[in-house]
Write a structure and sequence with these properties.
The protein is an alpha/beta fold. Helices cover 44% and strands 20% of the residues. It has helices at residues 18-28, 58-66, 85-94, 104-113, 127-137, 142-157, 171-188; strands at 7-11, 33-34, 38-39, 54-55, 70-76, 79-84, 98-101, 118-123, 164-167. The mean pLDDT is 94. The structure holds guanosine-5'-monophosphate.
Amino acid sequence: MKGEKYLFVVSGPSGTGKDTVVANLLKKHPEIQHTVSATTRPPREGEKDGINYHFMTRTDFEKHLAEDQIVEHTQYCGNYYGTLRSEIEGRMALGIPVILVIEVEGAGNIKRMYPGATTIFVLPPDMEELERRLRNRGTENEETIQRRLKRAETEIANSVDYDEHVVNVQVETCADSLYSIIQFRLKHGKDE
Ligand code: 5GP
């Protein structure tokens, strides 16, 4: 599909800091936009509907699925997460670079649907640092932390299929690496 090179998929284990890195990138480069996913997860403190996610009930989410308004979705730690078609296809057509921050299964599905998209995996410096960041965030209970850490190991092991990898040692530097990748792909990526 025309415009696939404008799609950038960013994944990384929970707690790796990918959202902070992407937020830093978007602040410095407002010509790049990001998608707002749909989820059935309850909002965390400070999260706003339509900004962080489109928060939905399971019934609502399943209705969107049945109506083919969601291009990829997954169940992650007991909740649905999905990318709305309306969040990506218009921007692809207009040539607006757009970033999806989604987990690995969704990234694989996007890459199969839009082979011209670029997938980028954000790695933590090491597993100890990942656990420290996840705990410092203070948003999850112990059971969820353990589930997320277990899932992180599998995700890292399967990340070889990504087009690009960056290590988040320091937010600014990592955001700059992401920007270099985006610039390169926009210049040299295939556009259909
Ligand atoms: P969190 O609950 O921490 O906000 O997100 C949990 C995981 O779901 C993260 O890895 C996040 O990137 C992923 N995620 C968020 N939105 C989507 C989406 O639309 N599709 C998929 N496949 N994963 C998503």
